[in-house]
Amino acid sequence: MNFHVLTLFPEMIESGFHTSITGRALENGTIALDTINIRDYSTNKHMRVDDYPYGGGAGMVMQAEPVHRAYQELCEKNAGKPMRVIYLTPQGRVFTQSIAEELAKEEELVFLCGHYEGIDERALELIVTDFISIGDYVLTGGELPALVMMDAIARLVPQVLNNKESAEFDSFHDNLLEYPQYTRPEEYMGRRVPEVLLSGHHAKIEEWRRQQSLIRTRERRPDLLENNPYLTEKDKKYLKDTM
Ligand code: 9D3
User: Phi and psi for 86 in degrees, rounded to 5?
Assistant: First the structure.
């Protein structure tokens, strides 16, 4: 998978992605990152990339030309191969795991990050295929949303996660929140690890973890219990008995 990012802050994307699991995947060549500084495509002698909005209003708008030129050079480098171009914007559809799964099938992905009040609509009309938001809160630009999306997509690319990490992925199931985890020591600040986890009794451990998932989901994400097709009769009885 090749990620291309058009941005005014390439160092933000580089430092974020060259870390942890995605950093390892970049090093071993499973994925690749190409950051393109939109400012390098300004034709203005002061390298400006923004201007006042026609019609008035607060803030500045990124000009169409540098964005379009940066994209055109990228297309030429990629021999005109068709590529999805994702514009990170509060005016997009909200990013989900199923969108990540769909995008993980692509060989090339282009992310366009806006800053200030956004980008001249004509550049968007010319190049963007997908408009995506990461949720209903206000950020200062599209760089963090691009990193969020790239992280979620990269971990779905075969070979990015190692055996242990992907086993962990497989165990996330049934649309429930995960049970609590503990590691050494057995006691910390007077708090003991639940005895059942030290018992070696695997059936009991599984049952306890399922119950913890159910309680936790009811407490923090009750919406996930409504019409959840994975709930067994035993789950439903447990939830009723602990009400
Ligand atoms: C006129 C109001 N504007 C500023 C308060 C609108 C506005 C412009 C640019 C609001 C935020 C931004 C910068 N945000 C993003 O580029 C962005 C974003 C976000 O803010 N929240 C969730 N997902 C995304 S994706 C891109």
Answer: -100, 120
